[in-house]
Amino acid sequence: MYVYRCEDTLESIFTAIYRVYEEHRPKDEVLLALDEEPRLFTEEMIVTADQERSGKVARTLCRRFGMEDYERICFALTAENVEKAQAVYRTVVSGLALREGAGYGRLFEGLGDAQVCKAFKLARSAERECCHLEGFLRFEELEKGALYAQAEPKNNLLPFLMAHFADRFPEENFLIHDVGRGIAGVHYRQTGSEAWVLIGGKGEKEAAVTQGMEAALSESELYYQSLFRRFCGEIGIRERANEALQRNLLPLHFRKYMTEF
Amino acid sequence: MEYMTEVGKMSVMEKLAILTDAAKYDVACTSSGVDRRGEAGKLGNCVASGICHSFASDGRCISLLKILLTNECIYDCKYCLNRRSNDVPRAMFTPEEICELTIQFYRRNYIEGLFLSSGIVQSPTFTMELICRTIYLLRTKYGFNGYIHVKAIPGADSEVIRQTGFLVDRMSVNLELPTADGLRNLAPNKHRKNILTPMRQIQNGITQNRNEVAVYRHAPAFVSGGQSTQMIVGATNENDYQILNVAESLYQKFDLKRVFYSAFVRVNEDKSLPVLPGGPPLLREHRLYQADWLLRFYGFRAQELLSEKRPFFNVMLDPKEDWAVGHLEEFPVEINRAPYEKLLRVPGIGVQSARRIVAARRSCSLNFENLKKLGVVLKRALYFITCSGKMMYPTKLEEDYIVRQLTEKEQRVRFGSDGMTYRQMSLFDDAGFAGNAEVISAQEKWQTAMGQL
Q1: Which of A31, A4, A34, A33 is nearest to A16 (CA)?
Q2: Is there a contact between B58 and A232 if contact means CB atoms under 8 Å apart?
Q3: CB 3.0-4.6 Å disulfide test: which of A109, A118, B167, B181 passes with B359?
Q4: CB of B88 within 8 Å of any CB in chain A?
Q5: Is the pTM here over 0.90, yes or no?
Q6: Could B12 and A226 be called an inter-chain contact, meaning their C-beta atoms sit closer than 8 Å?
Q7: Which residue ranges form the domains of chain B, and what is each CATH number?
């Protein structure tokens, strides 16, 4: 048994996958571990993320299975789950083993396999949360016109959210703050739609992020918030009132940072 | 018009309250059908799947800023809150106010775009021009690149409708009521022909535009999100069969993207409107939507689901289950062999899970455990399927037995488990037919409920 110890990043896990192929390991005797747990009778490898290798894996996945499947793999890797690396590894191995059959959209076809199914489930729940947040995220306008949003996603979705909003608001300076993880994405206007960076992390960096957040709201912000609250109050039809359905479609844990609740 | 003098003094907050309240009965609030990337210098993009930004207290999605331009109206439709003869506060937005609201809401990610409808001021053409001017301002001066859905006003000049079509993503013409008779009774100022004319015009415009885009990639898009319509259910005494047939022919002949059904809410006291003591016919609306999905995604035809003799949906079973127990000769279906179209017709298997089954069974034969993981609802499907020749449990392929099992309380995800109900259903529940109380006898109701008609 060969254990590859990775960090919880896309680069690190892709590098590990590349090394498994590079070092010609028997594919069934490999474990990609995110934890520190010692295991008996194993050979251990510490993986350090390598941009070149992870880039090659990413390109191969895109080429062989298409963007949609690649994106799904990325979503699976945003999950907070220690077994995700192994599930993704098994999915990639079984997908690449398809050889002549491999093609766009075929990476997740073997859902009969437990590991593929697991990766698929992780990806699906992350994707769903991302869709929810794209709708439920609320920005507030700060003094100088920049927009600021807070969220506490279960999966590490900030890169996806940033990409979505960078495309949507190319002319805005905005910042999305992942409160739970202490990281933030910052987008600057007029530098193209790809112009965003992630800042922060654990410890001191986190303090730096939260410190920068104490800017005051702009003058009209509260006015528009009250307008929207009024709008949401008026739009419901009393004869059809249905709180249970509302709660079903918009679970309470999303409402913490939403203007209208 | 006595309120017109007040309009100038009214604050945006008051206007928003009045004109939102007046627009809330419009159901077509989706932001789907268009994929458009953001553009430098502009605000917004569109996602084909649509994005829900919030949910209102009635559980309906808030996706677009749904407002009327004005609730002044020269028409007197009996079911409408804004009809001429009602004494309600009236208001009118200026185009700038609408643009400012849309932009500011959009920047804060409150909404996905604008839904603009209007009461009729002066004339249909005049109203349509006002709408067109507002949208033009929003698209050009304010650089808004998000989703816009407007109502085409029946009777408006075709040139204005055409121009508006180039600015918006989706257009809809309200059919209002399923049949021409109903329309004549309840909306004396509206005519079926006037409603279908712009609908046809938009359809032709979309087809023409599709051909243009094929040749010139950058030809301006005309209503690229397609058109939709809506009709009120339960205000007149059409049966479900008629309504479903109307919907089907709209999909086929007018190429509509969506038909929306809205359960009639009695907002006006009028002798020609039905009294609905049980509230709006929500279950009926729900069944119509279920059947609508079957028409659009599952390859069903209206005639298969209902017939002249059996014109109402079953209260206890959803339309697909109802069809399946009536066609047991088609079952059981073998999961590992059956074609996709057959799988789609099994209750408990949806479009997604049918696709996954077809893909997954290439690499291994599937068992019931796998099916569960693929998302098949086994408690509904198990009576109709076999895996490698075996059923999940020994079951009888008998109509009565299966109906009993499917409707059993513990077995079933009931209508209402997600709160979509307003009271407990019983065997003699007439909720679905409340609007037609005088047409159907008690015995017929019972028979429909039992699926015997």
Answers
A1: A4
A2: no
A3: A109
A4: no
A5: no
A6: no
A7: 4-233 (3.20.20), 319-414 (no CATH)
Q: Chain B within 8 Å of A195 (Cβ-Cβ)?
A: no
How many beta-carbon pairs below 8 A join chains A and B? 169
**Domain match, A155 and A81 both:** no
Within A50-173, strands assigned E span 139-141, 147-151
Looking at residue B132, its pLDDT comes to 96
Answer whether residue B425 shows pLDDT above 60: no
> Which of A130, A146, A170 corresponds to the end of one domain?
A130
The answer on A72 and A44 residing in a single domain is yes
- Test A171 with B41 for CB contact under 8 angstroms: yes
pLDDT digits (tens, 9 = 90+) for A209-243: 666 566 788 889 999 999 999 999 999 999 899 99
Q: Between A140, A239, A246, which is nearest B59 by CB?
A: A246
A103 and A178 in a single domain? The answer is no
Tens of pLDDT along B133-185? 999 999 999 999 999 999 999 999 999 999 999 999 999 999 989 999 999 99
Matching residue, tokens 């507030």? A140
CA of A121: which chain B residue's CA is closest?
Answer: B373
Question: Which residues constitute the domain of residue A26?
Answer: 2-130
A103–B contact, CB cutoff 8 A: no
Same domain, A163 and A74: no
**ipTM entry:** 0.92
Question: Which pLDDT value is given to residue B410?
Answer: 53
CA-based nearest residue in chain B for residue A193: B40
Under a CB-based contact definition with an 8 Å cutoff, are residues B167 and B116 in contact? no
If you average pLDDT over residues B108-123, what whole number do you get? 94
Residues A110 and A56 reside in one and the same domain: yes
**Nearest CB to B57 within list A112, A136, A243:** A243
Task: Respond yes or no on whether the N-terminal peptide bond of residue B332 is cis (omega within 30° of 0).
Answer: yes
Total number of domains constituting chain A: 2
Q: How far apart are CA A82 and CA B178, in angstroms?
A: 55
In angstroms, the Cα distances linking B79 to B16, B149, B186, B237 are 22, 23, 7, 14
Within an 8 Å CB–CB cutoff, is residue A131 touching chain B? yes
A90 & A164 share domain = no
pLDDT at A1: 87
**Are residues A38 and A97 both part of a single domain?**
yes
Q: Which of A82-86, A198-202, B195-199 has the lowest mean pLDDT?
A: A198-202
Contact residues, B window 253-272, toward A, CB-based 8 Å cutoff? 263, 265
> Are both A211 and A177 inside the same structural domain?
yes
